[in-house]
């Protein structure tokens, strides 16, 4: 019975994975029309090179099988990278895009979207991990300086001896492109222990944020969204 249940679960999962891959391909192709040709070319060239080497050393079957496996792996890597690039291209410039990236930085990070916002949709998100507190801002750099300074001043009364980093997402000088945000976060030096991270998180949550006072959609926010006149701004 247990084997049958596992087999049924596997059969159910496979169509789901194939459907997800197909959906990812369609979404990628909208932004990258050559993705199919590039991925196919990578697979054919990789397989062809190994097969040719196999004939040269008189082991075409062995090298053919190895080439097929490596060709499949190379195709998966190339497709993954182009799909990721296409996804970032579609997200870039949308309010709240950085929050979507922060939600997928990895284990050990706790993200709170939109801890500060103004009427112009300049937003500051907060992430807490072993590297300390990271404030990630997106919007107009000149206006963001004030938002970041206010948020740092507010946190200084709550958390002590916890390093605070600030990142402005963008393509200008001193800014971090959206596609490099996750890498930048992971490169920060780890200086806190697990209990210290938990303690800092608890204190910051007790402080409250915009998300607890105003309902906001997850992921990128609609471009026409505005802060309500009676809402609290930070």
Question: How is this structure best described in words?
Answer:
InterPro entries: DUF4191. Pfam families: DUF4191. The structure is a single chain. The protein has 234 residues and is α+β, with helices and mostly antiparallel strands. The protein has 8 helices and 4 strands; from the N terminus they run H-H-H-H-E-E-E-H-E-H-H-H. The protein has a 4-stranded mixed β-sheet. Helix 1 packs across helix 3 (60-91) and helix 2 (35-56) runs antiparallel to helix 3 (60-91). The longest helix is centred in the first third of the chain and has 32 residues, at 60-91. The chain starts with a helix and ends in a 21-residue tail after the last helix. The relative contact order is 0.11.
Features:
alpha+beta, disordered C terminus, membrane, elongated, transmembrane helix, transmembrane, 234 residues, single chain, four-stranded mixed sheet, 8 helices
């Amino acid at each position: 019975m247990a084997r049958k249940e596992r087999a049924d679960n596997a059969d159910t999962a496979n169509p789901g994975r194939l459907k997800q891959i197909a959906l990812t391909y369609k979404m990628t192709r909208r932004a990258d029309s050559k993705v199919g040709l590039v991925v196919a070319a990578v697979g054919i060239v990789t397989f062809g090179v190994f097969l040719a080497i196999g004939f040269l050393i008189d082991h075409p079957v062995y090298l053919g099988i190895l080439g097929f496996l490596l060709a499949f792996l190379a195709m998966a890597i190339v497709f993954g990278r182009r799909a990721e690039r296409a996804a970032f291209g579609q997200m870039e410039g949308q309010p709240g895009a950085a929050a979507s990236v922060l939600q997928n930085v990895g284990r050990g990070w706790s993200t709170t979207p939109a801890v500060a916002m103004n009427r112009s949709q300049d937003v500051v998100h907060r992430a807490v991990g072993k590297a300390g507190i990271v404030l990630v801002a997106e919007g107009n750099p000149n206006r963001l300086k004030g938002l970041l300074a206010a948020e740092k001043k507010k946190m200084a009364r709550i958390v002590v001896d916890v390093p605070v980093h600030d990142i402005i997402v963008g393509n200008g000088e001193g800014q971090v492109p959206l596609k490099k945000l996750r890498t930048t976060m992971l490169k920060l030096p780890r200086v806190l222990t697990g209990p210290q991270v938990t303690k800092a998180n608890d204190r910051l949550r007790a402080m409250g944020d915009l998300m607890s006072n105003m309902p906001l959609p997850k992921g990128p926010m609609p471009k026409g969204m505005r802060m309500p006149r009676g809402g609290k701004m930070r």
